[in-house]
Amino acid sequence: MKVERFFRVATGDGSSSSWARQDGESLRLLDRAPWATPSELDEALPLEGARLLAPVRPSKIIGIGRNYAAHAAERGQAVPKEPLVFLKPPSALIGPGDEIRIPAWVGRVDHEAELGIVIGREASRLPDPDTALEHVFGATCVNDVTARELQKKDVQFTRAKGFDTFCPVGPCIATGLDLGRLRVLGRVGAEQRQQGSTEQLIFDVANLIWSVSRVMTLLPGDIISTGTPSGVGPLRPGDVAEVEVEGVGTLANPVVAG
Predict the structure, then answer these.
(1) What gap in Å lies between CA 206 and CA 130, rounded to an integer?
(2) In the chain, what are the domain boundaries?
(3) Contact present, 65 and 225 (Cβ < 8 Å)
(4) CB neighbours (10 Å) of residue 25?
(5) pLDDT (0 to 100) of residue 1
(6) CATH superfamily of the 4-53 domain
(7) Which CATH number fits domain 61-257: 3.50.50.60, 3.90.850.10, 3.30.930.10, 3.60.10.10?
(8) pLDDT at residue 84, as a whole number
(9) Contact by Cβ (8 Å): 26, 46
């Protein structure tokens, strides 16, 4: 299957935005979201130098906890018997190059490199996982930034994972990938800290979509962040956090005190 990449870019004076399809070194602007059967506009922009935004504006961001056995082990916790589901608010969303802001009072804050699944077709109460992948539009990179000490203190995840800027997403949405065989990497500066593959997911993408759809309706543009490989570690002001998903690209965000 042909791989295509879709971006959301700032246009005009930067106060408006447009979705776009990559065409070589250019971005062909679209009249609507790429999962909504768009038409291409006459306008194109060079990819180099374009101001890239988060490629989705989701109604909700669904996170999945401890979906790699090695990550569960490094956290000293058991592998879940069913998907461990939590939510990150859309207000946490930022795009490529945007700053991750760390409040001084929260303690340790970790990076979590993850494959993000972008929903392209409404999914509600799916009867089984067999048709779940029909509801996927494509794949993206997600950094599930987490205030680790608050997570441990609160037990549930809302506060630890819900801060503004704690959900970088991008740089694009890639379609046509084999979601079951993608390498996921996490780096801080030049140091590679995380390396895994979606072959190692405890609950694969189809099962995640099916499981979540039994609880809440998934809408086009929603994100499911599928869990992180082992190797999570702290972020500090001055760092640059990178998430790379095979076939998608690299999402990079500077870290600042906030």
Answers:
(1) 7
(2) 4-53, 61-257
(3) no
(4) 8
(5) 80
(6) FAH (2.30.30.370)
(7) 3.90.850.10
(8) 97
(9) yes
More confident site: 68 or 75: 68
Whether residue 62 is predicted with pLDDT greater than 90 in this model: the reply is yes
Domains 4-53 and 61-257 belong to one CATH topology: no
Burial per residue of 134-160, b for 16 or more beta-carbon CB atoms within 10 angstroms, e otherwise: ebbbbbbbbbbbbbbebbeeeeebeeb
227: which DSSP letter? -
Residues of the chain with pLDDT > 90: what percent? 94
Pairing of strands 240-245, 249-257: antiparallel
CA 175 from chain centre, in angstroms, equals 14
What is the model's pTM?
0.97
**How far apart, in whole angstroms, are the C-alpha atoms of residue 55 and residue 193?**
25
User: Which has more confidence, 176 or 15?
Assistant: 176
Q: Is the pLDDT of residue 229 over 90?
A: yes
